[in-house]
Task: structure prediction
Amino acid sequence: MAANGGTKAILAALFANAGIAVAKFAGFLITGSSSMLAESVHSVADTSNQGLLLLGQRTSRRRATREHPFGYGRDRYFYSFIVALMLFTLGSVFALYEGIHKVQHPEELTSPAVAIVILVVAIALEIYSFRTAIVESAKIKGDASWWGFIRQSKTPELPVVLLEDAGALFGLVFALIGVGLSVVTGEPVWDGIGTIMIGVLLGVIAIILIVEMKSLLIGEGSSERELTAITEALAADGDVERVIHIRTQYIGPDELLVAAKLAMRPGLTTAEVAAVIDGAEARVRERVPAARLMYLEPDLDRAISAPPR
Result:
C-alpha cells in the first residue's frame, strides 16, 4: 500500500521503537536499572501499538456488508482505543509498580555508563520518529493548535503517534535523569524515582488518548466549521428556503454521514425537487469532501406555510 502521512509516521515509529526496545533490554540486563526496564517495556508496547494501528488501517478498508452497511471505517478508532489501553497497562502501570518497588528496595546500578549511552542513542532515534510525526501532522493540522489538532482530528493515527512519541521522548529524558542522578549522588533511589516519573507521564498520555478515542469510537459529528460549510452549501440554492434540521456523524476518519431535512420552495415538481437535492449534494461534497454519505429529505417549511390561527 502507498504510505500516506499516517502510515509513514506509524512506520517511522515502528522501526525506531523496535530498535530502541532491543537496545534498552540489553542495557537493563547489563545495568539492572529499573528505568531501563520500564523504558524497555514501554518501547515493546509502542512497537506493538504501531502494529495495531497498521492492522486497523488494513481492516478498515474492507467492503461494506449487509451486517455492516456503512463499512468498517471505525476499525481505526477501535484499534487506536486498544493502543491507548495498552499504553496505560503495559506502560504506565508497569512503570509505576517497578518504580515504587525500586524506591522501597533500591539496588546499585552496574555499568551505568552503558545505560547512559543507550539512552542517548535512543533519544536520537526517538527525535527522528517524533519529527516525522510532526511533519506529517502539520500537513493536515491547518491553523489549529497542536492541542486542538489532538482533540479535533478525526484521523486517529497521527494524534496517537504524536503523543506516543512525545511520551517516549520525555520518558527517555526522565530515565536519563534518574540514572544520571544515581551515578552522581551514589543513591540508586533516583533510578526508581525516574521510573515513577515515566509511569505518571505515560498514565496522563494514556488517559488523554482513551478519552479521545472513546469519543471517536461512539461517534462524533462534524466540527463547527464543517457544519457551517455544509449548512451554507445546502441552502445556497434559491429553491431551498432553509435547513430545517441536520445531523452529522463520522463513520470513519474519511467518511462523514450527513442527514438533513430541507424546506423547499412550494410548487416544485418531483423532477425539480430531485434536481435541487442532486445540486445540494454536489455543493456539499465540493465544500466538504468527507461528506460521502448524504440523506436529504425535502419538506415544506411548516413554520412559514402554516396558516395563522
Summary: The chain has two domains: 5-218, 224-305. The beta strands are 240-252, 255-264, 293-299. Residues 305-309 have pLDDT under 50 and may be disordered. The first strand starts at residue 240 and ends at 252.
